[in-house]
Write a structure and sequence with these properties.
Blueprint: H1 2-48, H2 53-60, E1 70-75, E2 83-93, E3 98-107
Antiparallel strand pairs: 1-2, 2-3
């Protein structure tokens, strides 16, 4: 009887930690995809050395995508020849009932 009780406790706590680990891994993967997406957008803009509707089409047709991410490109307040690339993505930890949005901000080099 003692062995069955210990096995039950190990299974219950093991499953709890497994669910926590899966949720944390999902957060890490989404964060990594969002970072890769932001760096790809930055590389496209810096390679074209401009940002306009044609570059926006290149970004949308890029092979690197993030299905849960949204990007925004804004001018830098102090230096108008630089751009902020902001990628927003959700963070969800279901076991903690925690849902929020996070963002990655990248700053471009001066664009001509």
């Amino acid at each position: 009887m003692k062995g069955a009780f210990e096995t039950g406790l190990v299974i219950i706590f093991g499953m709890m930690f497994m669910v926590m680990g899966i949720d944390y891994m999902r957060v890490i993967l989404v964060n990594n995809n969002a970072r890769l997406y932001a760096e790809n957008i930055l590389a496209i803009i810096e390679h074209q050395n401009r940002y306009d509707s044609d570059v926006d089409v290149l970004i949308q047709n890029s092979s690197i995508k993030c299905s849960v991410c949204q990007y925004q490109i804004l001018e830098h307040v102090e230096s108008q020849d630089r751009l902020w690339i902001i990628v927003t993505f959700p963070i969800e930890m279901n076991h903690l009932n925690y849902f929020t949005q996070s963002e990655i901000r990248l700053l471009s080099r001066p664009i001509a």
